[in-house]
């Protein structure tokens, strides 16, 4: 497990609702579409035994719809960029090691957002403050989140229904990407609202994916969890005959 992201009061200046509310009012006057939305995703990644979950989480998010684009750096090299701007200084040395296995300290979701904005892959990033923010963003086709949360022992493996549960001892911080929301997922003989996450541990859970109940998402947010929604910039590749200015 990596570091737990430190809360920053400046994040409160960029709440998701500033963007979400007026667009929902404009495009969905009769209410959000539903009851579910799943986004097309890129490959399931594997960070191995490293602490580079934030590099892998951001890479997974950038690979996924509704805008799918591949950063030019590997998840490990993105992580090396992130540690140089995050809120900790004792992991700075990791930016200069070429051995991926030495990348263990972890970094923050916020640092990843700052670097990707500087790289021109996102224009901004906003923060969900409630589970309803998370649900609405998915259903309104804004795409998934990069999620930095406390990770507990019971979240290490998915259960028989494909869920991970936020309970038990906190092992540290971890980052995943979200890929969808469903208002009616079968769970323990009933149905629940749930968030679909994409892990960076290879073929873990349900082929790299798992569910988290609405209730546990709310608990994770309350426990200083960070749900970051990037505002992506769609990059249009040049055509073969385009060589710059005439």
Number of strands: 7
pLDDT averaged over residues: 92
CATH superfamily, by name, is Cysteine proteinases
- What is the count of distinct domains? 1
Kindly report the CATH topology.
Answer: Cathepsin B, Chain A
Number of helices: 6
What's the helix-strand series?
HEHHHEHEEEEHE
Kindly state the percentage of residues in helix: 10-25%
Portion in strands: 15-25%
* Biggest sheet architecture: 7 strands, antiparallel
- Poorly predicted runs: 240-246
- Rg over alpha carbons: 18 Å
Shape summary: globular
* CATH-level-2 architecture: Alpha-Beta Complex
How far apart the termini lie comes to 52 Å
Structural class: alpha+beta
CATH class: Alpha Beta
Mind explaining what this structure looks like?
This protein has 246 residues and is α+β, with helices and mostly antiparallel strands. It has a single domain, classed as Cathepsin B, Chain A, CATH 3.90.70.10. The protein is built from 6 helices and 7 strands; from the N terminus they run αβαααβαββββαβ. Strands 1, 2, 3, 4, 5, 6 and 7 form a 7-stranded antiparallel β-sheet that branches. The longest helix is centred in the first third of the chain and has 11 residues. The chain is globular and about 50 Å long.
């Amino acid at each position: 497990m990596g570091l737990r992201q430190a809360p920053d009061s400046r994040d409160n200046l960029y709440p998701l609702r500033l963007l979400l509310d007026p667009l929902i009012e404009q495009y969905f006057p009769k209410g959000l579409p539903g009851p579910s939305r799943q986004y097309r995703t890129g490959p399931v990644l594997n960070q191995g035994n490293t602490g580079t979950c934030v590099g892998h989480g951001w890479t997974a998010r950038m690979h996924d719809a509704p805008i799918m684009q591949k950063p030019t750096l590997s998840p490990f090299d993105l992580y090396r960029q992130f540690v140089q701007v995050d809120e900790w200084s004792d992991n700075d040395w990791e930016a200069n090691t070429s051995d991926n296995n030495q990348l263990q300290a972890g970094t923050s979701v916020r640092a990843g957002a700052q670097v990707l904005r500087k790289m021109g892959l996102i224009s901004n990033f906003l923060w969900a403050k409630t589970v309803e923010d998370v649900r609405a963003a998915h259903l309104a086709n804004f795409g998934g989140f990069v999620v930095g949360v406390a990770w507990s022992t019971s979240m290490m493996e998915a259960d028989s229904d494909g869920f991970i549960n936020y309970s038990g001892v906190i092992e540290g911080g971890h980052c995943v990407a979200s890929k969808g929301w469903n208002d009616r997922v079968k769970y323990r003989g009933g149905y629940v609202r749930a968030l679909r996450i994409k892990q960076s541990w290879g073929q873990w859970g349900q082929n790299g994916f798992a569910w988290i109940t609405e209730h546990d998402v709310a608990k994770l947010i309350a426990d200083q969890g960070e749900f970051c929604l990037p505002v992506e910039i769609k990059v249009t590749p040049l055509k073969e005959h385009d060589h710059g200015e005439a």
